[in-house]
Amino acid sequence: MPVGAADVESFHKQIKRRAIENGDWERLRSSFLTKMAENGWLDEMMQKGKNVAQNMDNLRFEELRSSLSREVHKGIPLEIRREVLQSIRLYLDKQFD
């Protein structure tokens, strides 16, 4: 039986809610942010955000976010991306044992 987009979205919401309720979401998030801070990525992105914001005539959050979005995702170091994905996989494996 094929799984529809609505089913996937519902499943995603359930997993995220469970992770938030039991504190795993914050643990994963904190681990990711710590790695990014140690790597200097957070400071770099904050500086880029400031530079973009200063050069905007009419500062709007949505414009700022969209202008940085691609660069932010591309800028995540591959090693950290792999570590975070592995942590998520381990979490999901535990949920379905």
CATH class: Mainly Alpha
**How would you characterize the largest beta sheet?**
none
Strand tally, please?
0
Rg is: 17 Å
CATH architecture: Orthogonal Bundle
CATH topology call:
Serum Albumin, Chain A, Domain 1
The CATH homologous superfamily corresponds to ENY2/SUS1
User: N-to-C terminal Cα separation, in Å?
Assistant: 22 Å
Tally of individual domains? 1
Helix and strand element order: HHHHH
Percent of residues in helices: over 70%
User: Which structural class do the helices and strands define?
Assistant: mainly alpha
- Uncertain stretches: none
What does this structure look like?
Its main location: nucleus. GO terms for molecular function: transcription coactivator activity. It comes from Tetrapyrgos nigripes. This is Transcription and mRNA export factor SUS1. It is built from five helices and no strands. The chain has 97 residues and is mainly α. It has one domain (9-95): ENY2/SUS1 (Serum Albumin, Chain A, Domain 1). The longest helix has 18 residues, at 78-95. It starts with a helix and ends with a helix.
Describe the protein's topology:
Layout: H1 5-21, H2 24-39, H3 41-54, H4 61-74, H5 78-95
Helix pairs in contact: 2-5, 3-4
Provide tags for this entry.
81% helix, 0% strand, 97 residues, Serum Albumin, Chain A, Domain 1, globular, mainly alpha, 5 helices
In short:
With 97 residues, this protein is mainly alpha-helical.
